[in-house]
Amino acid sequence: MHHLDITGLEARYGEHTVLSGIDLTVGRADVIGLIGPSGSGKSTILRVLMGLLPPVGGTVKLDGTAVNYADAAQVRRLRERIAIVFQQYNLFQNMSVLENVCVAPVKIKKRPRREVEEEARALLAKVGLGDKLKRYPDELSGGQQQRVAIVRALALHPEILLLDEVTAALDPELVSEVLDTIRLLAKEGMTMLIVSHEMAFIREVASRVVFMAGGRIVETGAPAQIFDAPVEARTQDFVSKILRH
Amino acid sequence: MWSQIVEEWPRFATYYNFIFIAKAAGMTLGLSALGCILGTLIGLALAVTRVTRSPWLRPLRILALLFTEVFRRVPFLVTLMLCFFAFQATGFDIPLFVVAAVSVTVIAGAFLAEIIRGGFRSVHQNQWEAAATMNFSLLDTIRLVILPQAWRIVLPPAFGYFVMFIKDTALASQIGVIELTYVGKVLNNKGFSAALSFGVILIVYFAISYPLARLGTLLEARLASSRHHRA
User: Which of A116, A118, A150, B144 lies deepest, with the highest CB count within 10 Å?
Assistant: First the structure.
């Protein structure tokens, strides 16, 4: 059974159609790289999956069970299994690094604080932030904040992790520290959907690459196929432009 | 004027007058405190109601919107009269203090609702979204994420409003509540000069509102320096 099964997914912002019929299957421990020009709907897929933008058509199945996004209880259950990391980190500005990571597990999932904190410390140490526990988001660099955001998502013990252009807001020299963290997760078998403009990284880490344009999936394939031998003209055009940089 | 006050002072400075003024000060303080505290709670409830999304709560949202919009636009005196006659129509003998207390609470609630809602809106949308994706309920989101960040924005106008509000309770004298302004008029009618009667009242008003304003400044300064509330 597929971990995530998306069929005919449609979404709109007002009158503007942003996703028109997305079909995508994600297996367990798959790492899907979503690429494409700005406005192609890559990030929107993640927002819809997360229940931030209600779909207007199509189905999403999680482990074979369809999710009804109009049902708050079902969305809540879904959010217990899928976590998202945002492009702008979205860390809680009023909380320290440690509190950002612990707040949901402790206050929402009601897990014992001691256990959660221990785990949070270990995770933060793993991403090189063991000495920043008491710091606040505005005292950290973008790369550090993004790693906190990833740890915060991981502390929820998600089965699937959605990463929305997690390096787009970072200075180039900070990108590698975030990518290292993601690499680590991929190695550990986390199912991930990664929206990114880091083509070299996608190529390396993704098990499958999805190229999108205009709210549709244009082409799907192994990284080598998409980057070296794309079939569709639209993909060839995009890839050739990207690789020229 | 000064010699007149000096001349009047021995007659003015009686135990009875001081008790009279002290009681009135208590009334003004009581109305102000009720308005500020209950008003803040009601304002918070209204603001929270207005940021709900659930279709079930739509009627409640509309009610909250109507309440804030109406009572923010109606002059204090009119609300006061409205409450006065509404309570009279019930036929029960309701103390004037209760009538005044209800009016000030309603008014303060409506005003503070807008101030607090403004504070909510000042917190970036991404904070709400992050909380939502981690399954925070609306109340948890507000309690743990939004309010701690919104305080900074809410405090200055809220305390500005509190100070203004203390002065507005003077209108309660119009329905016969024995508060400071009322007492000023009574003393004046008893033959004391306006300068003395209202001069004393002025000092008492100042003594009530100045510490409040100081508290506001203090809280703002503390929030500004506190790591927890920097955005």
Answer: A150
pLDDT band at residue A211 using 50, 70 and 90 as cut-offs: very high
Q: Which of A131, A149, A46 is nearest to A89 (CA)?
A: A149
- Which structural domain, as residue segments, surrounds residue B29? 2-229
- CATH of residue B7's domain is 1.10.3720.10
Count of domains in chain B?
Answer: 1
The CATH number of the domain holding residue A113 is: 3.40.50.300
Residue A64 domain flag: no
| Within a domain: A23 | no
DSSP B79-124: HHHHHHHHHHHT-S---HHHHHHHHHHHHHHHHHHHHHHHHHHHS-
* Parts of chain B with a pLDDT under 50: 229-231
Q: What is the DSSP letter of B229?
A: G
The answer to whether residue A14 is domain-embedded is no
Could you tell me the residue range of the domain that residue A190 belongs to?
Answer: 28-51+72-244
Q: Is A69 on the interface with B (CB under 8 A)?
A: no
Q: Considering the domain boundaries, does residue A21 fall inside one?
A: no
- CA distance to partner chain B, nearest, from residue A60 (Å): 17
Model confidence at A245, pLDDT cuts 50, 70, 90, reads low
Token pair, residue A106, equals 């402790």
Per-residue model confidence (pLDDT) at position A221:
95
Q: Which of B120, B123, B133 to mutate to test binding with chain A, by most A CBs within 10 Å of its CB?
A: B133
Question: Which pLDDT band holds residue A181 (cuts at 50, 70, 90)?
Answer: confident
B227 touching A, CB under 8 A?
yes
pLDDT reported for residue B226:
64
Dihedral angle sign, alpha carbons of residues B137, B139, B144, B147 = positive
> Which pLDDT value is given to residue A114?
96
Mean pLDDT, chain A, whole residue set: 92
Number of domains, chain A:
1
Of B175, B26, B18, the residue nearest B103 (C-alpha): B175
Q: Which residues of B touch A93 (CB under 8 A)?
A: 127, 149, 230-231
The question of ipTM being above 0.85 is answered as: yes
At B212-222, the pLDDT tens digits run 989 999 988 88
**B99 φ, ψ to 5°?**
-60, -50
**Is B223 part of the contact surface with chain A (CB cutoff 8 Å)?**
no
